[in-house]
């Protein structure tokens, strides 16, 4: 390789400096972007008020070209392998449908659930994927992860206690105590289809050469179509926001709000919306989502596993406290009850423990570059690439799909001669050893698939191409 890091050489010194400077800066960017994304998601509910469906359909439509254009370019350049082009569409549609169900529950519940409670409930993906993978995939977890999952569940239960109080527990959102509890449970239930999508994605794509762009594009199309067919849900009493007779004017006002126009006075929506901010908020949330995913992948490249555990755990309490600041939330600023403090302590302890017991504790040593030969099998330089010679997921690890390798380093790709010194190098980020539990991390980070997880649920590897 042209730039092999050897102890004491400038290349290694440069790498140390990059880690010392790059990791904290990127970690700060990750925390800020994730917090802004969470807060922006809540503000969307206030801005659009009785128009939750327009958020769903607009965001879903935006992701189709966002992933479709890069996918088309990749196909034109011949980057997409033949196995991806012939892969059946059914798995994409299952994932897209589950993502749509996740979005419907979260977006419709958003205006009715306090932001602090949302920050806690969004972590329900960790125990849900944990128990689902135990049941469906027979996944093996470390003993500490069992206890950590129970602690997370306890934190979620504590966060719901204020909703059981007669006064509703929070004045920042409308509705009675019973309706707030119903919407909180709907928000919590939104983690179930996201968790099922994560489990299904892992099972279907674990040993298939499916390019990440193909997965994101086809599942986004499926998500958009699924939401279009789910349109009649807006007519359900106590869940939807409009009657069939008023649907036309309602949707016209909804898309008018998207471009900053207040709805007609006769509809009676003017005190429920903030249309001047609506379109800007959607763009901001998409931007923060993309920034958070980039920062997550980039931070993992420079930081140790322990540092990433700390950073990813900090996001939830920081987001929760952000909801209490009036300069951010305006008149919708919230207060933290004793139950919120207890829930956050339990949640942070549970998430930290779950991730800590999952990540293998490797020594901080320079890793010899991995070599991927023409068959896709990894090998150490000077060692044969026989199946099972490296602890991955099997005899080959294609570069065209998320990879789960319990190490981080440089993958060298040279289909002609894997030991050639002029081989092309791809920096790779592999933050966890077990794909099942790593998927639970990303699912827990995701929340609403369009806003928080459409990238995060599938970012098993981040490579600069």
From TrEMBL:
Localisation per UniProt entry: Membrane
Listed transmembrane segments: 51-72, 92-109, 115-137, 144-161, 181-200, 212-236, 278-295, 307-330, 336-357
Gene Ontology CC annotations of this record: membrane
Organism domain of life: Eukaryota
Keywords: Membrane, Transmembrane, Transmembrane helix, Transport
Region Disordered: start-end pairs: 377-397
Membrane topology: Multi-pass membrane protein
Main localisation: membrane
Assigned protein family: Belongs to the CRT-like transporter family.
PANTHER family given in the database record: PROTEIN CLT2, CHLOROPLASTIC
Name of the protein in its database record: Uncharacterized protein
